[in-house]
Amino acid sequence: SGFAIPISQNFGAGDHAALRRYFANSLYLAGALSVLIALVTGLLSPQILTLMGTPKSIFPYSLTYIRLIFFGIPATMLYNLLSGVLRAVGDGRTPLYMLLCSTILNIFLDLLFILVFQTGIAGAAIATVLAQLLSGLLCAMVVYRKFDILHIRKGEGRANAVIMRHLLNIGVPMGLQFSITAIGSTILQASVNSLGSQAVAAIGAGAKVQFVFTSPIEAVGVTMATYCGQNLGARRIDRVRVGVRRITFIMLAYSL
Fold first, then answer.
1. Would you call 3 helix, strand, or coil by DSSP?
2. Shortest CA distance to 68 belongs to which of 154, 118, 137, 130?
3. What pLDDT is recorded for position 186?
4. What was the pLDDT predicted at 248?
């Protein structure tokens, strides 16, 4: 999500060559980071679950599921990066349509793998990763077919340390904001795990309901990052002020 902000700034400024250079370096960084994170978390899954005090009765199922999800992180990263880039160049609908397709496919594959192929909890994880991979590939297809502005020209695809540093300077703080909530949830989950598998299931079900109602708040945060980036690039600070003021009132009303 953070990598899309410099892209939106260059889009607003009308500097398409710089936009493509940032896009290319975003792909390099996201690819390297996703593989690194997938390998580290996938290989350390048993230790992570042990540290969280996962009940023995559900430990094998948790390990099977989370390890597959971790190894599928590159698929998740592909969708999140490309959907952010599409929003950065003014297309907010395609990521939504792709996510809808992914969600429907995920449900269908869950039923197929679990009920027909009898793959158990592994099937649920595989279905999720495949659905996310499809949504990412569909976004890539849209980028290739409809957005010539993102087609990297000769000389624009070189790895650039200055650009990568700028991307990380914006992306890492944004990632840390998300991770603060994630770390808090992990600490809470570790405490819940000590109460047994029934408590774990209850919290899991409740958390999914909560996510339905809180996801619009997170979506607005990502949206405003893109909106502000585009207008900052276009030097329309007046629009940034108006947008931030209005969305604050909207989200306050929604939260209440």
1. coil
2. 130
3. 85
4. 94
Q: What's the predicted TM-score (pTM) here?
A: 0.86
Token duo for residue 93: 């609908």
**CA neighbours closer than 13 Å in the CB half-sphere of residue 236:** 14
- Euclidean distance between CA atoms 165 and 116, whole angstroms: 48
Given its phi and psi angles, is residue 235 left (phi above 0), alpha (psi -120 to 50 degrees) or beta? left
The confidence score (pLDDT) of residue 138 equals 92
Long-range contact set of residues 191-194: C-beta below 8 Å, sequence gap at least 24: 193/52, 193/53, 193/54, 193/55, 194/53
The span from the CA of 83 to the CA of 92, in Å, is: 8
Matching residue, tokens 């594959």: 109
CA dist 12 and 106 (Å) reads 35
* Residues with Cβ within 8 Å of residue 19, at least 6 apart in sequence: 7, 10, 11, 89, 149, 150
Instruction: Flag residues of the chain having pLDDT under 70.
Output: none
Spell out the residues 6+ positions from residue 110 whose beta carbon is closer than 8 angstroms to its own: 123, 124, 127
Q: Per this entry, what is the length of the chain? A: 256
Residue with the two structure tokens 């792909």: 27
Q: Which two tokens stand for residue 194?
A: 């000590």
Q: Helices 197-233 and 4-13 sit at what angle, rounded to 10 degrees?
A: 20
